Fold this protein.
Amino acid sequence: MVDFKLKNLSFSFPGGEDILKNLDLEIKRGEFVVLCGKSGSGKTTLLRLLKPQLKPHGKQSGEIQIFEKNENKVSLRESASKIGFVMQNPELQCVTNTVRSELSFGLENLGFEPEKARLRVAETAALFSLEKIIDKNVCELSGGQKQFLNLAAATAMNPQVLILDEPTSQLDPVSAQRLIDALSMLCREYGVTVIISEHRLENLIPLCDRLIVLENGRIIWNGRPEKIPADILLENDFLRLSLPLPMRVHSALSLPGDVPTDISGGRKMMNSLFEGKALTLSEKKKESEKSETAVKVKNLFYSYDGKEYVLKGLNLKVEKGSFFALLGSNGAGKTTLLSLIGGLLKTKKGKIELFGKAVSKYSSQELYRENVAFLPQNCESLFAGPTVFEDLESVLKNEKISKEEVKDRIFRVSEFCEIKNLLSVHPYDISGGELERAALAAVLLKKPKLLLLDEPTKGLDNLFKKELSKKLRSLCKNGVTVIMVSHDTEFCAEYCDECAFVFDGECVLQKNSHDFFSDNCFYTTAASKMTRGILPSTVTESEVLEFCKKNLMC
């Protein structure tokens, strides 16, 4: 049975060019399909077109068949009960006060009898291990917990299809793997069709039946990921960077034989290459010396309710000009710490100094004018105007500069963040990744000395992440200190100077990025897992490739 069939489908938003172009696609019952593409390639638009109630306003041509009938013949009840949809931003999907009521909301709207609804809620809560938070208020949950709740609420309706738009973007690596395992179980054991759009493909590629790649609104690949021809990967940097590390290494070294898609296959590949060989070690890079302290946190405690502490005597020091990452599980206290450093929350016990001065001693004007800029996790809150340009313009409304200088600063920062083509567009008509770049432009307009970023790589494709790293490092070279909260271990290992691990309200580890990930057993990178016990300490793709080329091609 075919769940979805697209025939020559094109779509455009009002006044814009086609964002989807002549798509022909079939998705069969029980398939696990992964959709990827650059930010703005049309992924979210395509997913929303598969759920009639979420269909965006615009011009459509071609045909969409759902459950082997025209989309217009699918009833509201059938769509609501059979097609579950999990959005990228969990904040937008929660509609009730408690976890229990969120799970029962859809069932009640479908007219389930109270007894059957209670049983389904209990069954779903057990399946997703939500029993301990079943009566918690939704506003008390972390972003990751809300994302699990959204998936559970969709699953409670017993759908035939689950559509997910970057569901792991706000999850730590362990939670992301748990969510993916849950999706795999629903697909393999219960026959649910899973269609998932993601940029983080390391753990999805080994599970998927098909990879669909969108580029400029067209499908450039639709098939098994390991079958992608080498010449396509050589020509397409985005696609190559999107694939799991074992596949990228196999391609970069032009190795013969089957392409490994997971860590297990990658370890077998490494063993076959280096077993019994004498290895030449790479010289360890010298760390740059930094002396001036930008941020100092001493014995910091914080509680939202006066009872349960989120931070428990945390200590941290960040040097000026560093690119620094805070990692840890959802709910560990990372965003709370970032908010305290940025003065968004008031310190109650402990001390925070910025550039040698206590945060509490700064006036608001002094703190936020050329000292600190904060990019929140849900960057939609920064946008309220009719166009991206007008929102950026509002950031500078209190600056004593001419209109010409305002325009000049906006155009320079928009060029830096690669959003010049989006300045005349409504903020909510662009993709999540594009909105993240526009939000970064907004905070950079203030020319801060300290840039605080909460999950800045979520929604970004790997190609732009690479560009983002260059931009952030160029800021650091000019004396800007960057502190970011992140679950993106690969990005942090490759580009950050230092990393700190926050657990149960404390900073339990702070080291340079290489030593941080090489010392960790489980919370580490794909490169570390793939080469552990086979090669000397390697934690990034560049280190793996440098080592391989030095030992295989000399």
Summary: The two ends are 54 Å apart (CA to CA). The longest strand covers residues 2-12. The chain has a mean pLDDT of 90.
